Amino acid sequence: AQSVTQPDIHITVSEGASLELRCNYSYGATPYLFWYVQSPGQGLQLLLKYFSGDTLVQGIKGFEAEFKRSQSSFNLRKPSVHWSDAAEYFCAVGAGRSNYQLIWGAGTKLIIKP
Amino acid sequence: SQTIHQWPATLVQPVGSPLSLECTVEGTSNPNLYWYRQAAGRGLQLLFYSIGIDQISSEVPQNLSASRPQDRQFILSSKKLLLSDSGFYLCAWSADRGGNQPQHFGDGTRLSIL
Predict the structure, then answer these.
(1) Do B99 and A107 touch (CB under 8 A)?
(2) Rounded to whole angstroms, how far apart are CA atoms A15 and A113?
(3) Pick from A21, A27, A5: which is nearest to B100 by CA?
(4) What is the pLDDT of residues B21-35, one digit of tens each?
């Protein structure tokens, strides 16, 4: 069965430092992968998606993610975080061509130190 | 462009009272529609999804129900709320292009049961 693991519940990063949030997936075929961000009390916003092609995907707000098939990973990165990046981040994988659901990770809460 | 509206933003209800949360999507036709719940500090739990009018799939047995009376309208209801129904409710839509589509979220409804 498909699954998504975000190993880190919380991550604390200093403002201006680089960021990497981990996501590992379990899926039998070529995965469709997504990263979302949720600010407190708000809905989720799509940061980026991977369907095929170039394994390094650029998203909004300066984020990027790299698909590594050999490691079943889709880690999210940002070279320099801003205080406004403090939020919860969710990784998700599509459940298949005939399945309308997304399989969600449990989320990683990003805390920014001033 | 497509937009999703969800209301109310916050709601405080007594135990045993009824519930109706509404979600509408503009700028697209025949979207797939979803209701999620987030308990405090928890991840996303899919409650219902719909791929067409009067086509509702329930993911979790509970005292909630969903209806889709029009193509772009999705309603979450309950006849009698329980304390455990407290949480953050999110509506989402995805394009009618089969599975593996990104979902786009509303701003959510914070439901508190007293």
Answers:
(1) no
(2) 6
(3) A27
(4) 999 999 999 999 999
Domain boundaries, chain A: 3-113
How far, in Å, CA of B106 to CA of B14, rounded? 25
Q: What's the confidence (pLDDT) of residue A85?
A: 97
Geometric angle at alpha carbon B78, from B75 and B82, rounded to 5°: 135
Whether the per-residue pLDDT at B63 is higher than 80: the answer is yes
Q: Is B3-113 CATH 2.60.40.10? A: yes
Distance between CA atoms of A4 and A26, rounded to whole angstroms?
Answer: 6
Which residues of chain A have a CB within 8 Å of the CB of B106? 43
Which residue on chain B is closest to A34 by alpha carbon?
B102
Q: Is B102 on the interface with A (CB under 8 A)?
A: yes
Residue ranges of the domains in chain B?
Answer: 3-113
Fold of the domain built from segment(s) A3-113: Immunoglobulin-like (2.60.40)
Give the span between the Cα atoms of B93 and B37, in whole angstroms.
15
| C-alpha dist (Å) from residue A70 to A24, A74, B33, B76 | 11, 11, 34, 41
Task: Kindly determine whether residue B90 and residue A90, on different chains, have CB atoms separated by under 8 Å.
Answer: no
Question: What are the structure tokens assigned to B73, written together?
Answer: 């309208």
Q: Are B13 and B111 in contact (CB under 8 A)?
A: yes
For residue B74, the one-letter residue type is F
Query: At B39, is the pLDDT very low, low, confident or very high (cuts 50, 70, 90)?
Result: confident
Cα(B30)–Cα(B93) distance, integer angstroms: 10
